[in-house]
């Protein structure tokens, strides 16, 4: 009986943990693009806990705001996509004005040396 209860409650516990993580990221989270010479990375997270994705700033060909496949209340979400040796996607949870501003700054810094 205890095994069945653990197996049955696992999806609910994971969904609750995901909701708590999303809420904390929405309140305290940050998206940060760091460019230092020939190395650069995008950090998404809370404090020092997060996800760091490196990319080569010299290889960035385009910076665009695209529509993602993820939807909220039936509306597709937008994100910034930097096309380089591999696509770097960021800013899906940013407000529209901040996303547009960040995309403009990235275009200016990365595409106009």
What can you see in these coordinates?
The chain is of the alpha+beta class. It has one domain (30-111). The protein has two helices and six strands; from the N terminus they run H-E-E-E-E-E-E-H. It has helices at 2-28, 96-111; strands spanning 30-36, 39-46, 49-55, 62-72, 75-83, 88-90. The protein has a three-stranded antiparallel β-sheet. Strands 4-5-6 form a three-stranded antiparallel β-sheet. Strand 1 and strand 2 form a beta hairpin. The longest helix is centred in the N-terminal third of the chain and has 27 residues, at 2-28. The protein is elongated, with a radius of gyration of 18 Å. It starts with a helix and ends with a helix. The model has no long low-confidence stretch (mean pLDDT 90).
What is this structure's SSE topology?
Blueprint: H1 2-28, E1 30-36, E2 39-46, E3 49-55, E4 62-72, E5 75-83, E6 88-90, H2 96-111
Antiparallel strand pairs: 1-2, 2-3, 4-5, 5-6
List keywords for this structure.
113 residues, alpha+beta, 3-stranded antiparallel β-sheet, 2 helices, elongated
Instruction: Outline the biggest β-sheet.
Output: 3 strands, antiparallel
Distance between the termini: 65 Å
Low-confidence stretches: none
Order of helices and strands: HEEEEEEH
Strand order of the largest sheet: 1-2-3
Q: Which word captures the global form?
A: elongated
Helix content: 25-40%
Strand content: 35-45%
Residue-averaged pLDDT, rounded? Answer: 90
Number of DSSP-assigned strands = 6
Total domains = 1
The helix/strand class is alpha+beta
Total of helices? 2
CA radius of gyration is 18 Å
């Amino acid at each position: 009986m205890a095994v069945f209860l653990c197996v049955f409650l696992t999806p609910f516990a994971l969904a609750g943990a995901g909701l708590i993580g999303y809420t904390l990221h929405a309140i305290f989270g940050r998206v940060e693009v760091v460019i230092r010479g020939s190395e650069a990375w995008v950090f998404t997270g809370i404090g020092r806990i997060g996800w760091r994705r490196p990319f080569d700033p010299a290889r960035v060909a385009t910076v665009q705001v695209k529509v993602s496949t993820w939807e909220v209340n039936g509306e597709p979400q937008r994100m910034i996509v930097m096309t380089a040796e591999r696509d770097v996607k960021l800013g899906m949870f940013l407000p529209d004005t901040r996303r547009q501003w960040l995309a403009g700054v990235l275009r200016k810094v990365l595409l106009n040396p």
